[in-house]
Amino acid sequence: MLTLGMLVGRAELELAFAGGVDTARFEGVGVAGLTALTVSQLLEGEPQRRLDAGCLVLVTGLQFRTRGRAEVALETLMEQLALDKCAGLVVSLAPGAHQPLPQVLRDLSHALSVPVLVTTAPLREWAKTRNRLQESRLAGAEWRASQLTTLVQQVPSELADPRAMQRIADWLARALQVQVLVSDPHRVLAASPATAAEALAPAIIHSSLDGTASGRSSGPHTRLISLGPARGAGTVLAIARGTAPFDDAEVRLLGHAAKLLGLLDQARREYRAAAETSRAARRAAVELLLDGEVDKARRVLAAQAPGLLDADTVRVFVVEVPCAHRDVAVRRCEVVTEGRALVIADPRADRRILVVQPVRPGRADDGVGADLTRLVAALGAEASVGGSGVYSMSLLADALREASAAQGFALLQPDSVALSAPNTDLIGLLPPRDAQLWARNLLDPLMRHDAQWEQMRETLSMALAHPYTVAARRLNLHRNTVTRRVARAAETLRVDFASVADRIAVGLALELVTHREPPAQSMTPGAYEPTLQSLLASPQVTAWADTLLRSARGDRRDLITTATVWLTHEAHLEPAARALGLSEATVRSHLRALEAHMSRDLGSLSGLRDLQFALHVATGKVEIAESRGVLCPAT
User: Fold this and answer.
1) How far apart are CA 316 and CA 396, in angstroms?
2) Fewer CB within 10 Å: C terminus or N terminus of the chain?
3) pTM recorded for the entire structure
């Protein structure tokens, strides 16, 4: 838009501010159009209509003989120009004539803030200027329409779109060459460029102190606009430009942008409140499911997700991410599993996200596992996911334990994913062919004679798992018979069954040979003969050991040390208590706590086996027996 200062600078218009008019005050006044009036028209009462705001009025034909009446008409015109917010009055004088304007007009100019200018240019030059002003006005209207259209195009398809504010801020910054900041009292919602937050923060702080952030100017080229429905609302749009003040068109555009941003802010607040309500209901539903209260959980979630919990079975996934990224990860999990699963931030662990997937008949997969796998890959190297098998809805707590174990196992996997729970049965993690070769090599002295093997394998399995009296009763044999057979087996295998390590090794070998199918590959021994040490050296077993002992390590009591010393003393309480400097009751309470952490019965051979192998792998402080009774020293 042309300004008075620009028109004064055009030589062909021979235009100047009248003497006594504050030039600096009015140079920046915008001129939207030009209206020409002759003295005759002025004396006849023209203009008889309201003038356009920003219009410049040119009066021609002023003569000395008519100045008395003309002065009165000019004074009336000046008052109308002030009411209609016109740009100013231009009086056309004859070239070279000394015709000073009356003092009363100069006084009115100052009082009414209507600039008065004089020109000696011919009317044809002003006709050209009128055309230029019309073209400028048309171009301005087209610019405003274009900008408004572009602004409307920034409106998102969903008001809750978290990036919508930033896109509008970026567009405003480009369109008006300004710095833009949208903020509430707690955070920056959008800034463009990124340095705008630092540059505009002082203006926002000042406005918050005096409570005046409703469309006001906070500096020469800074504007603050409240986005709330009431004055002084918390969310503010701040705009600053260092080159030139904002004209009327730009101010109107900023007003339209503020309305859109205000709607987005309102939608953001309402969406957040609704999301918090929904998440609270989902958390409550999951807590009820963990307590086995399936019917109550269904009622709680009926309004939020109708029918989601109607299934009778369920899978659980545990996603682990860094604490700082969990909120974002929760939202992304909600998006990728929408309508198929419950997603909550685990209140018990600040890195975990729980995903509960109801499983309907015939839809055991439903794509949730695959979607979470892709999401974990996108979240980066510090993310992992573990999944459970299919459980009854009332056994969600068991499914969660399995999923947690799977997630611990996933940490050592190349892709950080274990969607079926890791086999908590150690034997399932051993390499099948090597495990069978090791077991058959260990038991070979007993297996050479079929009759001896048939007699020994059942007796030995029962005797290693139970006291001899119990084993005899279950086998329907005399206790002395069981004792003789066990002694003969120990001699044949060259082991000492008084040693926990030897009992565990032989028990594992018997389990592999008698209860596990041999692999399809040839069982013919090759040059490589596997050892128990090599069987336990795989990453899968390492992950299993870490997962098994993780909970116990978090106990305030040193349960790991107690268990290590107890096994070193062949699982006897009294010598272990003396070595630890504790009472037998304390050692016993430690072992019971360890059983709870591991979900194992340390009175059983399998429980002892898992404890010994886990401690050996994880700490290296517990010995294991190698084949043919040779002890493997701690590493």
Assistant:
1) 8
2) C
3) 0.42
What is the spatial distance between Cα 232 and Cα 281, in angstroms, rounded to a whole number?
34
Provide the token pair at 316.
């659980």
Q: b/e string for 221-236 if b means 16 or more Cβ within 10 A?
A: bbbbbbbbeeeeeebb
Q: How far apart are CA 608 and CA 78, in angstroms?
A: 105
- 596-603 long-range Cβ contacts below 8 angstroms, 24+ apart: 597/549, 597/551, 597/552, 597/555, 597/559, 598/548, 598/549, 598/551, 598/552, 599/401, 600/548, 602/571
Mean pLDDT for the stretch of residues 30-58: 85
For 17, the 3-state DSSP assignment is: strand
Tokens 């050996």 correspond to: 616
Average pLDDT over residues 418-431: 70
Residue with tokens 């974002």: 328
CA nearest 276: which of 319, 334, 357?
A: 334
631 contact partners, CB below 8 Å, separation of at least 6: 501, 623, 624, 625
Nearest to 570 by CA among 526, 601, 612: 612
Q: What are the residues facing 91 on neighbouring strands?
A: 59, 118
DSSP 605-621: HHHHHHHHHHHHHHHS-
pLDDT at 45 over 60: yes
| Mean residue pLDDT across the chain | 81
Tell me the C-alpha distance between 548 and 610, whole Å. 9
**Predicted local distance difference test score (pLDDT) of residue 587:** 93
Distance of CA 16 to the CA centre of its chain: 62
Higher-confidence position of 465 and 57: 57
How far apart (Å, rounded) are the C-alpha atoms in residues 261 and 280? 28
Query: Considering only CA atoms, which of 135, 149, 99 is closest in space to residue 119?
Result: 99
Name all contacts of 141-144 with Cβ < 8 Å and 24+ positions apart.
143/249, 144/249, 144/252, 144/253
- 24 contacts 5 by C-beta, under 8 angstroms: no
Task: State both tokens at 174.
Answer: 């480009």
- Report the distance separating Cα 249 and Cα 211, nearest Å: 26
CA dihedral 442, 447, 453, 458 (to 10 degrees): 30
Q: How far apart are CA 405 and CA 288, in angstroms?
A: 22
Beta-bridged to residue 17, according to DSSP, are: 117
- ∠ at Cα 271 (202, 349), nearest 5°? 90
Identify whether the C-beta of residue 50 lies closer than 8 Å to the C-beta of residue 81. no
Q: What single-letter amino acid sits at 11?
A: A
Choose between 506 and 149: higher pLDDT.
506
3-state secondary structure labels for all residues of 447-459: HCCHHHHHHHHHH
